[in-house]
Design goal:
The complex is a heterodimer of chains A (40) and B (479).
Chain A (H helix, E strand, L loop, with lengths): L4 H32 L4
Chain B lengths: L10 H23 L5 H6 L6 H12 L2 H14 L1 H8 L2 H17 L6 H9 L1 H34 L3 H49 L2 H11 L9 H20 L1 H9 L5 H12 L2 H6 L5 H4 L9 H50 L5 H23 L6 H13 L2 H9 L5 H21 L5 H19 L11 H6 L1
The chains are: A mainly alpha (40), B mainly alpha (479).
Chain lengths: 40, 479
Amino acid sequence: MIVSSGFLGFMVSIALAVTVIAPVVLIILWIKDWIKGQLW
Amino acid sequence: MNSVNSAVLDADTGWLILAIFSVIWIFLGWFWGRKAKQLDDFMLAGRNVGMALGTATAMATWVTSNTTLVAPQFALQLGIWGMLGYSLGCIGLIMFAPLVKRIRSLVPNGYTSGDFIRLRYGVWTWRLFLLISMCYAIGWLISMGMAGGVLIHALTGIDYQYGMTVILIICVTYTLLGGLRAVIGTDFIQTILILVGIILLAIFTISEIGFEKMHADVLAERPELLNVLMPAAIMFLFNNLLFGVGEIFHSNVWWSRAFAFREGVGGKAYLFAGMIWAPIPVVAGFIALGASSLGLNVPAADMVGPMVAAKLLGFTGAVIVFIVVFSSLASSLDSLLAATSDLILQDIYRGHINPQASDEQLRRIAKIIIVLLGVVTWLVCLPRIATLGSLLQYLGAFVASTIWPIAAGLYLKKANATGAFLAMLLGTLTGIWAFFSIGFYVAALVSAVVSMLIMLISMWLIPGNFDWSSLNEIKEKSS
């Protein structure tokens, strides 16, 4: 069963969207920890 | 060694980038290492790492060169399922999250995964576990050292041996200066670099080739890569899942972080790291499907990622790829150097050679071990002996055998030393047999199934009755 180009595009786009959000969330977490003095 | 004609960075630019990052990582290693006055600071970053650094270090360590180089390789060899199967590696991080809470409550002052196995299953199972762990750790170090050489050669034409040597020297130096604190600190920066680089690379690939053309060209040349019922790929999917779980459950890279994170942080950090890691093999892997559209003749499958990127993006793109894979390599190499040196220090040196060693002696020995690990890795990496994927899958037979002894050992009183020993031994041996008799894609699967059956049978035939409080031995000794 061969996947369509639409499925390929959908799969990669979802993965890319999550990957785009990740660094933003990490930087927000870093700022929150830094403000609280809880980086390490 | 394969030669690559698609190097788009000249050697001088390659050396310049290496020099810049060498200075940054080594300076940061020294800077953060200044605060590591006690053994716990050096080995476990003071046992007080917060959520941001905890999540980033778990994610960055799991994004190895194996993700950025082997994910495209598997996409080229196994298609859609190659990417998705690799992506299931996130299950290991996610499943480890609840275990971290259990580990912290059972062995609050532990240092290594070996501590738990020794106290839970006794000396002989501990020694077998150490053998498996060391095979895995050295194998992983070698695969990353080799990946470093391959990457630099593919993108800049710098000799494989020189590139591999430089990456090892950089990582050994800053790990030596700052211990786990330097490793975790640099991991955060490396995580951001990796994520941003992979995003840019994916966006460029989509805009330059597009899904329609990529799909049509793959369909014309290698339609099996788009087949969701490709049998070998489906087995690879389950195999890779178990490989990932085995790697994380047993390796001291992950246990040392469980001990290093602040109380209450570990579970959440591993869960979140697993969630943001999951899409990365897809984002990094799908670009390999563009090889057909670009008419690339790929000399070795593990070079497809850098080759596609270099062909597509020219100078700027090659610099981005170079930084991404260099960061991936460094974030995993440093973690492995630190965690493996901890394992050798705590379980081999203190456990077998000098139980009365002082903290000061241990810190000195830890540094010697880091240097020796770097030298051994360098020596083994000099000849390029296997493709990266094959080397890693071979290790799957080892690590998958430890999943059930560790999981059962953490939760079930009935789990016993005889069962755990036989599960690891026979699981590993049958996994190796499957690797050579059937294929790389079933080694971890066979190992995990055999190991599970032995654990179940042993708990039924000779059930143990473990006293959880005996895991506090380390606390009593250290207090």
